[in-house]
C-alpha cells in the first residue's frame, strides 16, 4: 500500500530530531497518534523503520534508506506545490485581450499602457483581428476580454460601449470626388466600386448596414484587403475610394494625403464595444482594463 505523505513527513522528522515526541510536536499531533502512524507505515512497507528506546528513537538501517527516499518524495512534492503556485501567479498576472484593428491600432495601446503603469507585474497579450473573430475568441474562452467595432454583437456575449467612432469616405487629392462641391448621395456611393475590408470586419459591416438602411443596394468591392493600413495605402495609391474610420485616417486628412468626401443620407457613426462571455461578471485585470477604457472615453458613468 502507498504510504501517506504525513507519515513520510513524520518519519523524516524522527530521523532529524531523534524523538517521536519532538517530531509529533513539530507536526502538531499527539505522541500516541504519531506512534500509531509510524507503526502503520512500518506495516505497509513490511519494514522496521524506528528503534524505540527509553533514551529516544533512532532510525534503523532500513529506516535511514527509506527516510532518504521519503525526503526526495517530499522535495518533489514541494516542487509541485511551488510550481502550481507559480502558475497561479502567472495566470493572475496575465490578461488575454483581442481587439479589432481600429481599436487595436488607435485606442487599446493607450488603455493597456495606463493599466500597466498601475500594474507593473501585469503581462497583456493582445490579439489583433477583425470583429467577427474577436467574438469567436471571446466565445471560446481563448481571451478574457474583446473589443469590437461591428454594429452588432452576438446575443450570447455581454457588451459595453467604450467609445464612439465615425466612418469617412476618403479619396486621394487627385480624385474627381475631391473637387466636388456637392455632397455625394448614398446611391452614388453604393454605385461606385470601393476598396473594402474583408468580410467579418466591423468597418465593412457598419458600411453594409448603413447602405441597407438607406435602401440603395449593396456595396461593390474593387479590392478586398485584410487590414485598415492596406486599404488606406491602396486609396492613397489611387486604387479607388474607401470608407474608413476617422481614427485611422486623421493624420492623412490633416496633412492632405486624403480628402474626406461628404455623403448625404448615410449614417456612418458607430459604437466601439467591449465584449465578454454573457452571464459572467468581469473580474481581476479584465475588469480593470474595461474600467480604464471607460474612463478614457468618458463612459465610466454609462449604465
From TrEMBL:
Q: Which residues form the HTH lysR-type domain?
A: 3-60
Asked whether the keyword Iron-sulfur is assigned, the reply is no
List the keywords (alphabetical): DNA-binding, Transcription, Transcription regulation
Say if the entry is tagged with keyword Transcription.
Answer: yes
Q: Which domain of life is it from?
A: Bacteria
User: What one GO molecular function would you report for this record?
Assistant: transcription cis-regulatory region binding
Q: Which PROSITE patterns match?
A: HTH_LYSR (PS50931)
Indicate the family of this protein. Belongs to the LysR transcriptional regulatory family.
Mind telling me which PANTHER family this protein's record contains? Answer: HTH-TYPE TRANSCRIPTIONAL REGULATOR (PTHR30126), HTH-TYPE TRANSCRIPTIONAL REGULATOR CYSL (PTHR30126:SF39)
- Please give the name of this protein: LysR family transcriptional regulator
Q: Which organism is it from?
A: Kibdelosporangium phytohabitans
Amino acid at each position: 500500500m502507498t504510504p501517506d505523505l504525513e507519515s513520510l513527513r513524520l518519519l523524516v522528522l524522527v530521523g532529524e530530531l531523534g524523538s517521536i515526541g519532538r517530531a509529533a510536536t513539530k507536526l502538531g499531533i499527539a505522541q500516541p497518534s504519531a506512534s500509531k502512524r509510524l507503526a502503520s507505515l512500518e506495516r505497509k512497507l513490511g519494514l522496521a523503520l524506528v528503534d524505540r528506546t527509553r533514551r529516544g528513537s533512532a532510525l534503523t538501517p532500513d529506516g535511514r534508506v527509506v527516510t532518504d527516499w521519503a525526503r526526495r518524495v517530499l522535495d518533489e512534492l514541494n516542487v509541485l506545490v511551488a510550481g502550481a503556485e507559480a502558475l497561479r501567479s502567472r495566470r493572475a498576472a496575465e490578461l488575454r485581450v483581442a481587439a479589432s484593428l481600429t481599436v487595436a491600432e488607435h485606442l487599446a495601446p493607450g488603455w493597456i499602457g495606463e493599466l500597466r503603469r498601475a500594474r507593473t507585474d501585469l503581462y497583456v497579450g493582445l490579439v489583433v483581428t477583425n470583429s467577427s473573430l474577436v467574438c469567436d475568441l471571446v466565445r471560446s474562452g481563448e481571451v478574457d476580454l474583446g473589443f469590437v467595432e461591428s454594429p452588432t454583437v452576438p446575443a450570447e456575449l455581454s457588451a459595453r460601449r467604450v467609445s464612439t467612432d465615425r466612418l469617412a469616405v476618403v479619396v486621394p487629392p487627385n480624385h474627381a470626388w475631391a473637387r466636388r462641391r456637392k455632397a455625394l448621395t448614398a446611391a452614388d456611393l453604393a454605385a461606385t466600386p470601393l476598396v473594402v475590408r474583408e468580410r467579418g470586419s466591423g468597418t465593412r459591416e457598419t458600411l453594409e448596414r448603413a447602405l441597407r438602411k438607406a435602401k440603395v443596394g449593396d456595396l461593390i468591392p474593387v479590392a478586398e484587403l485584410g487590414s485598415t493600413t492596406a486599404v488606406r495605402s491602396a486609396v492613397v495609391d489611387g486604387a479607388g475610394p474607401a470608407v474608413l474610420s476617422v481614427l485611422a485616417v486623421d493624420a492623412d486628412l490633416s496633412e492632405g494625403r486624403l480628402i474626406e468626401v461628404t455623403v448625404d443620407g448615410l449614417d456612418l457613426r458607430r459604437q466601439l464595444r467591449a465584449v465578454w462571455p454573457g452571464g459572467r461578471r468581469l473580474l481581476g485585470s479584465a475588469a480593470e482594463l474595461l474600467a480604464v477604457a471607460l474612463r478614457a472615453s468618458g463612459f465610466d458613468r454609462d449604465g
